[in-house]
Design goal:
This protein is an alpha/beta fold and about 375 residues long. Helix content is about 55%, strand content about 10%. Helix 1 links the parallel strand 1 and strand 2. It is elongated, with a radius of gyration of 25 Å.
Length: about 375
């Protein structure tokens, strides 16, 4: 059985349509289901409209005192859920209820976690403004940067529309904060097969958005909590130590080659950068990601090195450009090298971390 958990707060205008469409979608694929609406004391009659539909749709209402948040509403709904699969969706119709059908199909075909994704082929975000798209993409990239070993390979970890086998949540110790329950599940649940199902996120036609400054702050707090709880904070500390050592090697070797050995900067700089990259890669193999390491004789290490080098090309290129410009301005060899390292490192930090960490994440 599939238990569809729908958190609500002042969704009276759309809740009955959402319930009817969800029920129709699951009936169309012959799924046994129930719907659990978790309402945070809506003042607009949302709960009463749910109860009025109970004779038409297999739905029940769980009322909570006060506005306690979406993520905890999902967990509270799960406590009363009778199904072996949980489905989670919003009530505001921005998640088309019809997507429940392909999500259920993915689960029945072997997926442990099926995510409705805006950011895979066939998915989209309707008529969002470029500002809203940028905010969404930035939040998604930020999550993948903070938790790259868990999220780097997931196109839409911020989705609020998904299904998961209840067995994958056993002993997961979920402790969500805010409204992004899927982040908590991806980071802590015990699943093997994850599938993303494309859908187009719809604009809200009725009701009001619940997002505000508080929700964005809770999102940042949630990321930090997950980084600590999953152990990836310590991976970040190890990665930072390795990156710092590589930066020092880059600067020191470039200065030595130019000032002591008399090399021209043109060949000296690529060599210094390459030595630093090799240092970073092999120390990451042995130190940062040691739990996944394999003997150097394993041919996989060379494939990983090639992938790592290709991912780091933009940062290395920016390093060369900034260093060259700084030297052209007569800023000094050491200062030029330091400026190049900072620029290249910043590019990798802001853009490339998920791809860089995926070099090792795929091994696990």
């Amino acid at each position: 059985m599939i238990s569809v958990i729908i958190p609500t707060y002042n969704e009276a205008a759309v809740i009955q349509e959402a319930l009817r469409r969800a029920a129709a979608a699951l009936r169309s694929v012959s799924e046994e289901f129930e719907i659990v609406v978790v309402d945070d004391s809506s003042a607009d009659g949302t709960a009463e409209r749910v109860e009025a539909l109970a004779g038409e749709v297999p739905v029940r209402i769980l009322r909570r005192p006060g506005r306690l948040g979406l993520a905890t509403a999902v967990l509270d709904g799960g406590v009363t859920a009778r199904g072996d699969v949980w489905a989670v969706m919003d009530a505001d119709l921005q998640h088309p209820p019809e997507v429940l059908a392909p999500l259920a199909k993915a689960i029945r075909e072997g997926a442990d976690l099926a995510i409705g994704s805006r950011y895979v082929a066939g998915g989209g975000t309707s008529d969002w403004t470029w500002v809203r798209r940028m905010i969404s993409r930035t939040a998604t990239h930020m999550a993948a940067t903070v938790l790259p070993l868990k999220l780097a390979s997931v196109g839409d970890p911020m989705s609020g529309l998904f299904m998961i086998r209840k067995s994958a949540l056993e002993n997961a110790q979920l402790n969500p904060l805010g409204y992004k329950i899927l982040l908590e599940i991806i980071a802590k649940a015990h699943y093997k097969n994850l599938v993303e199902v494309p859908y187009v996120f719809q604009e809200r036609e009725k009701g009001a958005s619940k997002l505000g400054a508080r929700q964005y702050l809770e999102y940042l707090q949630h990321l930090l909590r997950l980084a600590v709880g999953t152990g990836q904070l310590w991976s970040w500390i190890r990665y930072g130590a390795v990156a710092l050592a590589g930066a020092m090697i880059d600067i020191a070797l470039f200065v030595f080659l130019v000032k002591k050995a008399g090399w021209h900067p043109t060949p000296a700089l690529p060599l210094a950068i390459e030595v630093a990259l090799l240092n970073n890669f092999f120390w990451s193999e042995a130190f940062t990601f040691r739990s996944a390491r394999t003997p150097a004789s394993n041919p996989g290490v060379w494939r990983r090195l090639a992938r790592y080098e290709s991912i780091c090309i933009p940062g290395a290129g920016l390093n060369c450009v900034v260093t060259g410009l700084w030297m052209a301005l007569d800023g000094g060899v050491a200062n030029a090298a330091a400026a190049g390292v900072v620029a290249g490192g910043a590019l990798n930090l802001l853009i490339n971390i998920p791809a860089i960490w995926r070099t090792w994440a795929d091994r696990k």
